[in-house]
Amino acid sequence: MPKKIDLKPRIQDAIAIIDNWLEYTEIMGTVPGIAAAIVHKDEIVFNKAYGFSNLSNGKQLNKDEAFRIASISKTFTAISIMQLVEKGKLRLDDRVSDYLEWFVSKDDKNIERITVRQLLTHTSGMRRDGIRNGFWTLEEDFLNQNQLIEQIHDTKNPYPNNERFKYSNFGPSVLGQLIESVAGTSYNKYVSENIIKPLGLKNTGPDYDKNNASRMATGHGRYIPGKQREEYPHVKTNAMSPATGFYSNTEDLCKYISAQFLNNNKLVSRESKKEMQRVQWVTDDDEIKRGLGCGIWKVDNTKIVGHSGGFPGFITQIAWDNKSQLGVVVLTNSWDGMASEIADTVFHFISHVVEKYDDYQENKVSNIDKYTGRFSMHAVEVDIRKINKELVAFYLEGARPLQKPYRLRQINDSEFEILSGDEYGYIGEKISYQFDRKSKIKRIYIGAMPYDPFEAVMEKLKASWKQD
């Protein structure tokens, strides 16, 4: 019988690395704010915000603020469908037109053949956002029910159903109408009663509510050199709420992720989640496969399930690993937020530390915390952190910082041998420390290259900016 692994110390070491990396990413990047959280089983083990909620007034972002989570809304819609399947009110391979008589087109017979499963997997062939819209640029309101029906009646799909993957916001919007028809209540009321309330989500809703305006982060436009970022107003998404309307925060989304783990039956059964989270369709690029209302991909050797979101001023991501029962939430408040890339890197850190933790025991370092920190030279930054009993050094740029870390062996109180790492770097050489009278790190040398503590470098830069 395999030995049971205690994940807590592994997670703690990973979180220390992740926290420092996220802080660095927000400081050195252009994203106004990042809120990130990690959940293990049903325990939130990390939850923190970095940067600004609103750039123009300098308001700091806090971890309780809500973001528009955009297409993560589609996962709530998929859960709702599976609940109705479990109750015997519909089947995944039923035609949607069997329930919604209006789901037909005067120009395309394929539309009436589309199934529930095809809408969940984006294989219906439907247009992404209809035949005309200005809602993504906030020039027009998001479609109401009548407008949605009218556009479907007037459209011809680009592809026949069940032929290829083509992402669509119209598909989940139609599923919202299906849920209303089958459940006999509004979509917003259904998800509130059957998902939000059972999970105790206090800062989540299916569409913008002006009563919650003070709890919402501000959405920002992308970074353009020499220009102030545009700020976006919050708007209602109407009949497109099932595809893109939800708002939430990191704490609530951690609770929501916990309900996606296979052994958690709060929303749907284990068997329903297995069906949702298995590969239903392989996309052309083969990187992200499709489940029912979710994507499936790999970070290093770890299978990840989740969904991203993009809304005017917001880019978001939720992701989880069923094997370790670990989940990640990343919320950003700008169009160029890169939440998916951030979440993948967070999972990269977690996977490396959790899987290789036992390998980091041989080169035990005495007084290990004395040597950790973030260090900078003109072109690059390096982090030195603890994993288990050893120290590792790694460069902070790139999507996989721990792919080839420097593993260190202590020689004496101020020198470490670099045992392994990137062959283009300093393997076989030394990292040397210089300390001040208070035993604080004054400078390190990686090989012959000097690095100063990151905080000291930033203070010098700020002083020079003030002089300019």
Key descriptive features of the protein:
11 helices, 27% helix, nine-stranded antiparallel sheet, Lipocalin, 21 strands, 468 residues, eight-stranded antiparallel beta barrel, alpha+beta
Characterization of this structure:
- The protein is elongated, with a radius of gyration of 25 Å.
- The protein has helices at residues 8-28, 73-86, 116-120, 145-153, 170-183, 187-196, 241-244, 250-258, 270-276, 339-356, 454-467; strands at residues 33-40, 43-54, 59-60, 67-68, 219-220, 231-232, 247-248, 281-282, 289-290, 295-299, 302-311, 314-321, 326-332, 373-376, 381-387, 390-395, 406-410, 415-420, 430-435, 441-446, 449-453.
- The longest helix is centred in the N-terminal third of the chain and has 21 residues, at 8-28.
- 27% of the residues lie in helices and 23% in strands.
- It has a domain at 360-467: Beta Barrel (Lipocalin), CATH 2.40.128.
- Helix 2 crosses helix 6 (187-196).
- The protein has 11 helices and 21 strands.
- The protein is α+β, with helices and mostly antiparallel strands and 468 residues long.
- The strands form 4 sheets. A 9-stranded antiparallel β-sheet has the order 3-2-1-13-12-11-10-9-8, with helices on both faces. An 8-stranded antiparallel β-barrel has the order 14-15-16-17-18-19-20-21. A two-stranded antiparallel sheet has the order 4-7.
